[in-house]
Amino acid sequence: MIKPPQRLKELNKKKYEKVLKRSQVKIDEVIKVIIPIIKEVEEEGDEAVLRWTKKLDKVNLKREEIFVKEERIKEAYKRIKPEVLKALRRMEKQLKDFHIQQKRSNLISYRSFPDGGEYQLGQKFVPLERVGVYVPGGKGNYPSTVMMGVVPAKIAGVKKIILASPPSQNGEVADEVMVAADIAGADCLIKVGGVQAIAALAYGTQTIPSVDLIVGPGNIYVTAAKAYLSAIGKIAIDCPAGPSEILIIADESANSEYIAQDLLSQAEHDENACAVLVTSSEKLARNVYLYLKEKFVLSARKEIIEKSLGNYGAILIVDSLKEAVNFANEFAPEHLEIMTEKPEKIFDKINNAGSVFLGDFSPVPAGDYLTGTNHILPTAGAAKRFSGLSVDTFLKRLTFQSLSKEALSSISKDIITLASQEGPFEEHINAIKLRLHNF
Amino acid sequence: MIKPPQRLKELNKKKYEKVLKRSQVKIDEVIKVIIPIIKEVEEEGDEAVLRWTKKLDKVNLKREEIFVKEERIKEAYKRIKPEVLKALRRMEKQLKDFHIQQKRSNLISYRSFPDGGEYQLGQKFVPLERVGVYVPGGKGNYPSTVMMGVVPAKIAGVKKIILASPPSQNGEVADEVMVAADIAGADCLIKVGGVQAIAALAYGTQTIPSVDLIVGPGNIYVTAAKAYLSAIGKIAIDCPAGPSEILIIADESANSEYIAQDLLSQAEHDENACAVLVTSSEKLARNVYLYLKEKFVLSARKEIIEKSLGNYGAILIVDSLKEAVNFANEFAPEHLEIMTEKPEKIFDKINNAGSVFLGDFSPVPAGDYLTGTNHILPTAGAAKRFSGLSVDTFLKRLTFQSLSKEALSSISKDIITLASQEGPFEEHINAIKLRLHNF
């Protein structure tokens, strides 16, 4: 079970680094396993996809069953609980409302040089043409992740959104996943998962179109396949995903029960999930610890919680909120809850986090499902370098310039100077001279 | 030398794909070579960096010589030609003027649910803390690339910008590189190149700080090292870079000499550079071909141009500008020149390109150095999925939410419905219930 509260300053280096490290996904160790699968899918297409689906998912799919049929989706609407349908529709509305505000405007900038010569330059945003959204299956089914991946792509204006999710043993995808894909606006849904799904989306097969970008969480093999195909330049990806995590910053004004409960709710996800509290109040730390010890045994997922909190959990006491902020920026959590007297003041100083939850009534599950922010977020400290999913993920930027002869003339000498210095690139220089002499 | 004009429609599949493919960098083939170097730098730090610098760059550097000293930079200012200094200063001004317009504003969105309950959500942009900018050395020296990498990082607000460039055989970095780094605002400059520089920036050494992101072009080993370290989640990178390339779209109104000259100026970069014209005018195609044949023999770089145009060049005739646009979007060039009667009309239909040059007086060398757009751009078709370098490259986005009790109450039922369906995640549900009952 979770260790008793400790003073952050008193942790030795090894313990400190263990807390920071959490359960890192070791992608390099599985690369060898996934490359042969990828190569087979690249070379054989559907046949390899179906063979690996049989081998790994134990489902004997036929080629014409790869795509989920329209009728199946219509039936799924009838089968799911009405309250789930209602909640998914509301979720879509909330996600749209927030993500639409992320849309970019093109820029066109009219300029002229002091010595005359007008020119324009700017940038234009264009959606990616085709994208794949991967949603894991297996133990659970995750219609909310479907929404999180598809809605921003749709808002960006992606023409073809292909959802991929592994079939369960009956050869089907969960009804809720089908309905979520339909509500969010996915164009098609393939019943393929794992490395074979990622490879099929990257290279295309006889039936599955290739895509430019693949987003969405998966197990270590899926993550490694995305990383490998991105490294060789075949596809773009979102940021690599690992187990979910929370860091909570709290002072003496916070409610210890809320905090303990939020640690439990993160820990129940997965044995490798990570839940850490950093607080300036020794009393709060103690109360959280006692609540956790009392409550976790009552949980339906107590084995998971015990492992998760035992291996990756911590209650850390700091001397000041400043120390807590420094720790948070070093930890760079996927989810950060701030429960202090003035949470906005603390948030101002936070540089590294995926999504931030301010105050007593903003628990992470609200953002998991309904606030409208995205829940596909960087984990394991990657928030230092990466952002969560957004409309931007699905856009590229083209820059452009259009010069008058006078503008080109105004900068010609400096172009020639630099081209002479760097290459010298004589033909670059000729390209300028030819234009200015021939007018 | 370059092949005579061909009709695009009449190319067989193999030839068509050869044009599209250009000289792809095969990252997977060099991964085995670079991993041992990376591991040595990770484990030994500076010692391995110095050993590999000796082995590969033939320079016997001491640890205290890794960082370029302030005095050296001051001396460099005195040694470089005054016109180069002037041109670099103007370049910085132009780059700043354009890139400042790319800055993002934070977003805070005040919302309330119809049944009451106010909440806020938003996004905050934060610069990466430390970044590395890699600039190749070897045959040439590239102060312009220094500018292109450093200026947007500076505008984004990056706290520490480390420039890395290999030493030439005298153990120094070119004066122009030092001066460009200083003008652009790099915080320090290390005389280290190759895989050892990338590994040192990723892991940090005794003297070199680790960074969150590495940008900038390099040879295949540098590119592979960046790709590998990004795939295992260690660093973020810009888009993988390959040999430079141009596609020109032209109609009968265009100037064939300008076009031919621009193809030459792209081809002179590198044997693997790629220069392609696609035109609706048979006459123009012929004239460009004749000009090329006549002129390339006069070039100081005629061997390079002959190989580049011979292997990767093409003059393609199409039936219509629509066909040219479709080809351009499929080709997704790094640089696209549009020389038609109404270039803006064509540009409207372009979705895939790094940077676009409109009209007769916007040759690529203008953008290489002086218009203000960035010249670190996606190559080899990656413009389908990636953008060139921009201020965004150096920013991350944090999202946040702050709910009133009433707002949480308003969405509580839907959160509980979804958490019950997905896990069920009982502790998620408890996190909501606890807050709403205890008020």
Portion of residues in beta strands of chain A equals 15-25%
> pLDDT under 50 segments of chain A (min length 5)?
none
Instruction: Could you tell me the CATH topology label of the largest domain in chain A.
Output: Rossmann fold
Largest interface: pair, residues per side: A-B, 129 and 129 residues
> How many strands, what sense, and barrel or not for the largest sheet of chain A?
6 strands, parallel
Report the C-alpha radius of gyration of chain A, rounded.
Answer: 26 Å
Number of domains of chain A: 3
CATH architecture descriptor text of the largest domain in chain A: 3-Layer(aba) Sandwich
3D shape of chain A: globular
Structure notes:
The structure is a homodimer of 439-residue chains. Chain A is of the alpha/beta class. Chain A folds into three domains: 6-24 and 243-372, Rossmann fold; 27-237, Rossmann fold, CATH 3.40.50; 404-437, no CATH class. Helix content of chain A is 46%, strand content 16%. A six-stranded parallel sheet of chain A has the order 1-11-10-9-12-13, with helices on both faces. A five-stranded parallel sheet of chain A has the order 6-5-4-7-8, with helices on both faces. In chain A, helix 10 (256-267) links the parallel strand 9 and strand 10. In chain A, helix 2 crosses helix 9, helix 3 (46-57) runs antiparallel to helix 8 and helix 6 runs parallel beside helix 7 (175-184). Chains A and B meet through helix 5, strand 2, strand 3, helix 9 and helix 10 of A and helix 5, strand 2, strand 3, helix 9 and helix 10 of B.
